[in-house]
Amino acid sequence: MDRAGGLGKMREVGIREQWLIDETEVKALPTRILGRGGFGVVTLGVYHNTPVALKEPRQDVETSAADQVLPALCNELRILRRLRHPNIVCFYGATMDDSFVRLRLVLEYIDGVVLRNFIQAHNLAASNGEGGDPTRHFRSSTDIVNERKRIVCDILSALRYLHSRTPAVVHGDLKDTNISVQQQCLHGGLAVRGKLLDFGLARLLTRSAQPLGGTTRWRAPELFGSERLRPDIGGGNSSSSSSSSSSSSPSPSPSPSPSSPSCTDAAAVGPRYKIEVGSGRVP
């Protein structure tokens, strides 16, 4: 099926499931770039007077290259449209032009930073004697540890939700730049919250599931050496910070066994997050 035909069928599904948004309802702010990957870009937009993140293929690359990210964008739409969890970026819907050329996801705008930048800000502020807090309000070492624990618990909650779906959902590219950290007012004080982003490489765990993508540094050890390989597909994050540079450099990645739905996600959130969140060092 050609591109127009595939997007045409997706449009029919969007109308039936009521997630298709009329383009006139969304105001794009293309100069306000929130994230950028090898082929995808996330910009700020406004949807019914509410800030949103707009994710779409980059327009400044060759058509053949831009076409590589479209399947990932369609896959992200297919996955996100059925997910509802407080620690997963919210999917409002998608817009599609009448010529079936442009697909754009309308996502929750998260006013925060990715986990890597959050940890680095903690480290920098601590070295400057500012209590380890990126907002420069004093935080004790106990506060810092509790904040980091909260972020890990938030991501574990999101993963438990994903892996308990039927069929199970595997994120497939769980890394520090695909987690956003935002501060919220709670009981008269500030509290951090972690949210999972970028489902372009996620998969429904069925026996016909396609090979997973992912970043080599965060991949489960048992997934190396498989005969079923596929390179990364670049894409922007939906947070207020830019994508990791790893999204533009391809790495082979195999498909997980249907009997172990969380092997890829668990390997990333286990020892790797323990290293970064606990010590502040990127694994």
From TrEMBL:
SUPFAM superfamilies: Protein kinase-like (PK-like) (SSF56112)
Bias type Low complexity, positions: 238-250
Keywords: ATP-binding, Nucleotide-binding
Region spans: Disordered: 215-283
Binding locations of ATP: K55
Short name of one Pfam family: Pkinase
Domain of life of the native organism: Eukaryota
Domain Protein kinase as annotated: residue spans: 28-283
Name the record gives this protein: Protein kinase domain-containing protein
Organism whose genome encodes this protein: Prorocentrum cordatum
